[in-house]
Design a protein that fits this description.
flat; 2 domains; 38% helix; mainly alpha; single chain
């Protein structure tokens, strides 16, 4: 909404952190003649993604473009006598649950065929899991995304 372009950071933060039963949901109304019309009603983003990784995965392509442009300029226009400074993105995720260390060279066995349909019904949960989001971030932040080597 154009009239909400200058929304305060504190207001945006409060809208994104609404907990039903504790605080009311955040309501956003329209602009001008539609000021009385409700445009959206918001609750805490943790209901969809409590890790914040989905937001980061959504922002990563745009950030990698900006970082790539900066790094390309730094490499192609170095300052005489000065080291080239590059921006290297790092994703650090600290989960609340222990994760087993993968064993190198061990490939998990395929489940028996009768179990495939019930297992695939949980694909939505698996595709939005922290592991899936970390894989998206890994792909979006590979070195080719933020550092292009000139010919």
């Amino acid at each position: 909404m154009p009239c909400l372009a200058g929304i305060d950071t504190a207001t945006a933060a409060l809208l994104s952190a609404r907990f039903p039963y504790v605080t009311p949901s955040g309501v956003v109304t329209g602009c001008g003649k539609a000021a009385a019309k409700q445009i959206g009603q918001y609750v805490d983003g943790g209901y969809a993604d409590s890790t914040g990784l989905a937001t980061l995965a959504g922002l990563a392509p745009g950030l990698m473009s900006i970082i790539g442009q900066y790094n390309a300029h730094a490499v192609t226009h170095p300052q005489p006598g000065q080291p080239v400074t590059l921006v290297v993105p790092v994703t650090l995720y600290l989960g609340n649950s222990p994760q087993p260390e993968p064993i190198p060279g061990v490939i998990a066995a395929s489940p028996p065929q009768p179990l495939i349909p019930p297992l695939t019904s949980s694909a939505h949960g698996q595709l939005s899991s922290s592991d899936a989001l970390l894989q998206q971030l890994f792909a979006a932040t590979t070195h080719g995304q933020w550092l292009t080597c000139p010919p």
